[in-house]
Amino acid sequence: MKLLSRSILSLGPPRPPLLSLSFPSFSLFHTIPPVPNPPPPHHPSIESFSHLCLHGPLPAAMAVMASLQAHGLRADPISYSHLIKLCLNHGSIDDARLIHHHLSSDGHCPKLFLSNTLVGMYVKFGLLDEARKVFDQMPERNVVSWTTMISALTNLEQKEEALMLLLEMQRDGIRPNMYTFSSILRACMALRTLWSIHCCIIKFGLESDVFVRSSLIDIYSKFGDLEHGYRVFSEMVTRDLVVWNSIIGGFAQSGDGYRAVDLFMQMKRAGFLANQGTLTSVLRACTGMVLLEMGKQVHVHVLKYERDLILDNALLDMYCKCGSLEEADALFQRMPERDVISWSTMISGLAQNGRSLDSLRLFESMKVIGPIPNYITIVGVLFACSHAGLVEEGRYYFRSMQKLFGIEPGREHYGCMVDLLGRAGKLEEAVKFIHDMNFKPDSVIWRTLLGACRVHRNVNLAAYAAKEILKLEPGDEGTYILLSNIYADSRQWSDVEQVRKAMRDRGVRKEPGRSWLEVGKQIHVFIVGDMSHPQMDIIVKELNRLVGRITELGYVPNTDFVLHDLGQEQKEESLQYHSEKLAIAFGIMNSTMGKPIRIMKNLRICGDCHAFAKLVAKTEDKAIIIRDPVRFHQFQDGVCSCGDYW
Question: Where in this chain does the record put each DYW domain (predicted)?
Answer without folding.
Answer: 554-646
